[in-house]
Amino acid sequence: MAKDITELTQNAVEDIFPVESFHHLELYVGNAKQSAYYFCHAFGFEIKAYRGLETGSRERVSYVLEQGVIRLVITGSLTDQTDIAEFVKLHGEGTKDIGLEVSDIDKAYYGAVERGGTGIREPWTENDENGTVKKAIIGTYGDVIHTLVENVDYKGAFLPGYEPYDGPSTAKSIGLVGIDHVVGNVERMDEWTSYYEKVFGFNVLKHFDDENISTDYSALMSKVMTNGSGRIKFPINEPAEGKRKSQIQEYLDFHNGPGVQHLAVLTNDIISTVHALHENGVEFLQTPATYYEDLAARVGDIDEDVQRLQELNILVDRDDEGYLLQIFTKPVVDRPTLFIEIIQRKGARGFGEGNFKALFESIEREQERRGNI
Ligand code: TYF
Ligand code: FE
């Protein structure tokens, strides 16, 4: 009996898809030069690497932006024939690739495909004078992919094919340190949460149904998927019936199907990060003053000055392990699709459940201004 349990436990903890960390996030855009400028000057990234005509890349141009351990690749098309041009035409600008760093690419790729994952490209090797990497591609919801990267011994600026960027420095970090989670909007949540369970061995960390989180219009269901190490978190949302159009449905309509809804980035000092973002002209969702009236009663003692949080529109939520602070930008592209969340965790491992009502009501005010509900 005891032996069975031990065996079971060992099976349960065996990670069928060991992921080290996020490797990069790649956005497909209409004009990489200008988008890169926006992310650098508004969000404090620095351009580290580049590929384009000057480096022999005749079809795609990419700027690799860094801050903390975040690597954001901004890619545009140099012809009308690429998947980039097609993506941007259909979806508008948005996230194409959630790149994952793995230690054993063959095991990761072939295992995933065997378990029902969509194989897009089998493992291949790339190298240049700076070393070697192995890559492979697995598909996920919509036109989003997971490029798997195994770094064999690579020491270059980013990946083979990229050169160090030699343009003017844009280094003015606003304190973003890493990626907390990446959220997908889909038509059928369970289809994609099972995909992450089956193919990648992820587990459900949290489940929010429409009862928990419906306001007048923004009804949605959400499950947070997490990998074995807990380092990668992928919440997946589905629209639910509300009085009028769900914010998730608005996304699906404008994006023309499933895709990445928001990127949540970590800071260790949200007040100074958000202050800098305001100075840089980034627009945030507004929180009503009433939210801050009962904040102290709801979250108890916190280190930050509530007055300052209110000035900056920062939200707070507490769970049994601590609290978190978060804020959401308005969409950062033309269509009401992709937005950015800034989050600071002080112990809490949740997603701001206590803020859902206030947050979704401010999203609804924006939907109303856009004429979409
Ligand atoms: O990632 C989360 O779960 C939170 C809350 O449409 C959230 O950031 C959930 C759904 C949504 C916007 C924010
Ligand atoms: Fe989030």
Automatic annotation (TrEMBL):
For this entry, the protein name equals 4-hydroxyphenylpyruvate dioxygenase
Q: Where is the VOC domain?
A: 21-151, 178-330
Naturally occurring in which organism (per UniProt): Jeotgalibacillus haloalkalitolerans
Q: Which gene encodes it?
A: hppD
The GO terms this record gives for MF are: 4-hydroxyphenylpyruvate dioxygenase activity
Cofactor(s) of this protein: Fe cation
Show the CDD domains listed in the entry: HPPD_C_like, HPPD_N_like
Question: Which E.C. number(s) belong to this protein?
Answer: 1.13.11.27
The alphabetized UniProt keywords are: Dioxygenase, Iron, Metal-binding, Oxidoreductase, Repeat
Domain of life, source organism: Bacteria
Q: Does the keyword Oxidoreductase apply?
A: yes
Which protein family is named in the record?
A: Belongs to the 4HPPD family.
Q: Which InterPro entries match?
A: 4OHPhenylPyrv_dOase, 4OHPhenylPyrv_dOase_C, 4OHPhenylPyrv_dOase_N, Glyas_Bleomycin-R_OHBP_Dase, Glyas_Fos-R_dOase_dom, VOC_core
